Amino acid sequence: MVSFRTSFRPPRMRLRVSARPSPRAHLRRSAAAGAVLALALGLCAAPAHAAPEHPFRDSSLPLQQRVDDLLGRLTLAEKVSWLHQYQPAVERLGIGLFKTGTEALHGIAWSTDVDNGGNVVTARGTVFPQAVGLASTWNPDLVEQVGEAVGTEARGYHAENPRVWGLQLWAPVVNLLRDPRWGRNEEGYSEDPLLTGAISTAYGRGIQGDDPDHLRAAPVLKHFMANNNEIRRDTTNSSIRPRVMHEYELPAFRTALANDAATGVMTAYNLVNGRPATVTDLNASVRRWTDRTLFNVSDAGGPNNLTGSQRYFATQPEAAAAMIKAGVDSFTVDDTRGAPTVASVNAALAQGLLTEADVDRAVRNILSVRFRLGEFDPDGGPYGKITKAVVDSPEHRRLNRRAATEAMVLLKNTGPEGPAAEGSGKPGALLPLDPAKKVAVIGPLADTLYTDWYSGALPYEVTPLDGIRERAAVTGATEGADRIALKAGGRYLTAPAGAGGDLRLAAATAGEAEQFDVFDWGQGIVTLRSVANGRYVSRANWSTLANTQEQPAGWFVQEQFKLEAQGDGTVLLRYAGYETAEPWFGPNVYVRAAADGTLSLTTAENATRFTRETVRSGIAEAVAAAKSADTAVVVVGSMPFINGREAHDRTDLGLAEGQEALVEAVREANPNTVVVLENSYPTTIDRLAEKVPAVLWTTHAGAETGHALADILYGDANPAGRLTQTWPREGAELPDILDYDIVKTGSTYLYSKDEPLYAFGHGLSYTTFGYQGLKTRRGGDGFEVSVKVTNTGSRAGDEVVQLYTHQRSSRVRQPVRQLRGFERVHLAPGESKTVTFPLKTADLALWDVTRGRFAVEPSTHDVLVGSSSDRIRQRATLRVDGERIPARDLTRAVRAADFDDHSGAELVDETKASGDAVALSSGEWISFADVDLGRGATGATLGVAAAEAASVEVRTGSPAGRLLGTVRVAATGGVYRWSTATAALARAAGRQDVYLVARGDLRLKDAVLTR
Questions:
Q1: Average pLDDT, the chain
Q2: Which CATH class is domain 755-880?
Q3: For the chain, first and last CA: distance in Å?
Q4: What is the pLDDT of residue 585?
Q5: GO molecular-function annotation terms (predicted)?
Q6: For residue 11, what pLDDT is reported?
Q7: 50 half-sphere exposure, CB direction, 13 A CA radius
Q8: Of the candidates 145, 42, 166, 56, the residue with the CA atom closest to the CA atom of residue 103
Q9: N or C: the chain end with fewer CB closer than 10 Å?
Q10: Strands 939-945 and 979-984
């Protein structure tokens, strides 16, 4: 069992002892077909009350007794049916349908309607800032309140329609933000496990409520584990060496579970060390971290991937048995159709792959949460009286505004003359703005709010322009987008008004119906908004174009185009949506107009060449607006459905070229330019940040974005958000997105020595803070670190005090610095507060691969306190006693996966059930440091598997060092057929680094040297 320690200051928390269908399937199903399937499964409404004599209905009895009673009343067929995401009603016991999975990442987002074939139903409630924005508050107390609001609104929706709105909530996402190119970066919290653990614990506790026996709603952590890439996400292998696993990946999940702030996990799509996460052993990990019973689920389609894209098992019964034995309780698959799951589980039972006891164990886990949700209580439990009236309440609107405000990060704030006024709170800085002065509001995100795949619908909108207009005189407002017309053969591309419809090449002149606003999202991708009706052009019916979409959205984002310049001055209009990457789609992505004006998609050679006419220059309009005002606020950023999302990683972190050009033109026209960057990931804005005096970052922050922005811009609120990720500089080389070894690659703030554009924890304020008197004191099981923080400026404000440590000497590569605690404190001008952090000695342990456990080494540690990871204000040192990690002893079998260093090694599965091994190709190697060879090693025995004959060289000092011997490996018959291979070695004595260098392809599971 892994030991993970947290030293963040927990918020006011009390410890307490399904399914998203495939989006592709949504396009294919009809409501009628769904209804038939639902009836076939018996998913009909159940009576409101069961017979009162059943003990499971007696809420005065202990939970376990009630679970046992109900489990004993279910038939095997009923129990098996409950392993699917849609658990059918059991009418004879008065039990209704239970469905898993309502999406609730930053508010209730969407769920699926069992009565209509699993079609998605979108909520219209409180949409809080995206998850990365919530974490940017560094305020667990606030995040817990947000979680409480989300759990309460889940109850409200459930009260209205429990068949749609289930109370098992699939949130939060706690996957670490290791790589900023991850398409789902907006869904996570941080690149740091301690901060991620603190925020996820707060959100989960808020959702659950503080009743010791009941749940307001049941949060499920996503996605276990090492899920930080979308490219080939169901077939890629996240190779996680033990130190990265135990010090980085697992702690992010363990914190919330160990603090009883989650009720289960959702398994990820990817493979982890060669084994699909869908069958990674949860019983040996997550179930050991809490005394509570967990209800674990697979991700959508995960069960079928095991025999499909992953080809890990030959049959679905084998896959089903492996999942259940691994600790997955619910199969999120086949939408509303439970029959395939039932068939595969029944087949597994018939084949002896499962027993009824295995099924009982899973159903018992499911029931533990269903009971805690109050489903079987006569009054529905303490949260059973909540109604739909709580949704989008005034209280939640106020909380949303506060969350959006606290999440905003002031990246830069100087005067218009440049660096002379650099620094938070110094006189001459551009922000905060004077409301008495005129302002221009410019940019593609100035007067719109975007949602994302895991957002609900906004019940109302306060755009940046709306918020600023409430505070100051806006003399100019423009999106800065070019307005164009496209002409070919004497006719213009024409769009219908009203609700829109198919575009045609029709009109001889360019009126409003022939005009389109062009929005640049980078790398040539644009969206076209029809002036005729204000809607976006989309590929309709998979063939033609229509102006019917209110915003780019959906699983298939069909509103993406490119205007490709040709040598003769014309352009080709290219559809650039998701499906162009699909091999079956082919080259037919270019627009062709027939003689009658109708449009279709064809090849580039057959495409229509359009003349692009600029009706209005967006930059010219923006410049005019900027010149009319004292200050220009330019709102730029991303479109969440285009600039990376589920199933799509980013390949570029830059701001769209057209947006950057817009900012530069406005800055030239008006030196008092504020850039508001609205997106969900680190962005390489080096040149932009050099030129403009002030930059403010916000995630897509929901309906209150405009109010929150105005609160910050005009000083009603003092910015105190902090970055939860490192922002790299332009041109910085990031490792392959599939390389999860942050130690080897020097990734994240923990191991990177590169100078970032903005560091982890960075964020400025309108006031200044002084740090004094850092003290460390031994006591109890560790240390106490305290520092005095004073507001030395003229404005009240919040400071996020951050504690880092660095271990000076170690057997292994240590983090450059590591977050050990944080606290957001509010101080009036001149006010001081002493902030105290507990620091347990165990917090400073590393994962010792030589013995497979955590160990604290004797060493001096730097204690670093400041306002970000690169703005350390006070330093001290601690001498920590510990145990010296002994020299490697290879006379006993050592797991190959416990190497100290490697080149090209990939962690893979030893067997399909358990164990890690190392896969090597010719020339790749692993090494073991500081091996005690005694008076001399004379032989080597390796546990090997190989499809073809190979060999392993045993060397010392380096991969090209002294050759002690070569172990010949005969073909074993497959990668899961293990054998031993031996060889004599030339004598080598003393303490040396030992290298195992592959010649040919093979797998290693362990190694022993004889001496």
A1: 93
A2: mainly beta
A3: 33
A4: 57
A5: alpha-L-arabinofuranosidase activity; beta-glucosidase activity; carbohydrate binding; xylan 1,4-beta-xylosidase activity
A6: 35
A7: 21
A8: 166
A9: N
A10: antiparallel
Distances in whole angstroms, Cα of residue 708 to Cα of each of 261, 764, 997: 29, 17, 58
Contact 420, 428 (CB under 8 A): yes
Q: Calculate the alpha carbon distances from 968 to 141, 722, 769, 797, 949 in Å.
A: 60, 55, 65, 68, 8
pLDDT tens-digit readout, 944-963: 999 999 999 999 999 999 99
Phi and psi for 802 in degrees, rounded to 5?
Answer: -120, 130
Q: Phi first, then psi: give them for residue 187, nearest 5 degrees.
A: -85, -20
- CA dist 852 and 885 (Å) reads 11
SS3 367: helix
Distance of alpha carbon 37 from alpha carbon 339, whole angstroms: 9
Nearest residue to 453 (alpha-carbon basis) of 67, 70, 120: 120
Query: How many Cβ atoms from other residues are within 10 Å of residue 146's Cβ?
Result: 26
Q: DSSP letter at 248?
A: I
Beta bridge partners of 654: 684
C-alpha 959: how far from its chain's center? 38
Residue with tokens 């389109």: 516
Q: Which two tokens stand for residue 442?
A: 């410019």
297: tokens are 């689920």
b/e map 380-416, b = 16+ CB within 10 Å: bbbbbebebebbbbeebbebbbbbbbbbbbbbbbbbb
Q: Is residue 942 within 8 Å of 957, Cβ to Cβ? A: no
Q: What's domain 23-383's architecture?
A: Alpha-Beta Barrel (3.20)
In 209-249, alpha helices (H): 242-244
- With beta carbons less than 8 A apart as the criterion, state whether 909 and 937 touch: no
- Here the tokens at position 195 are 């901060």
Residues of the chain with pLDDT under 50: 1-51, 419-425, 580-583
DSSP calls for 621-633: HHHHHHHTSSEEE
CA distance linking residue 930 with residue 121, whole number of Å: 59
Helix (H) or strand (E) holding 634: strand 631-637
**Helix, coil or strand: residue 80:** helix
Q: How far apart are CA 410 and CA 797, in angstroms?
A: 13
CATH no., domain 484-616: 2.80.10.50
pTM of model > 0.90: yes
Find where tokens 């670490």 sit: 176
Cα–Cα dist 114/98, whole Å: 10
Pick the CATH number of 894-1010 from 1.10.10.10, 3.30.450.20, 2.60.120.260, 1.10.575.10: 2.60.120.260
Q: Which CATH class is domain 411-479+618-725?
A: alpha beta
| Per-domain residue ranges of the chain | 23-383, 411-479+618-725, 484-616, 755-880, 894-1010
How far are the Cα atoms of 28, 197, 854, 863 from residue 818, in angstroms, in the given order? 49, 14, 17, 10
Concatenating the DSSP letter of every residue in 958-975 gives STTSEEEEEEEE---SST
The candidate with the shortest Cα–Cα distance to 573, out of 533, 594, 601, 531, is 601
In this structure, what token pair is assigned to residue 745? 């690659």
Residues 274, 261: Cα–Cα separation, whole Å: 30
Q: Which stretch of DSSP H or E encloses residue 141?
A: helix 140-160
Angle at the Cα of 257 (from 252 to 258), degrees rounded to 5? 95
Query: What CA–CA distance (Å, rounded) separates 510 from 504?
Result: 13
Tokens, residue 918: 């190392």
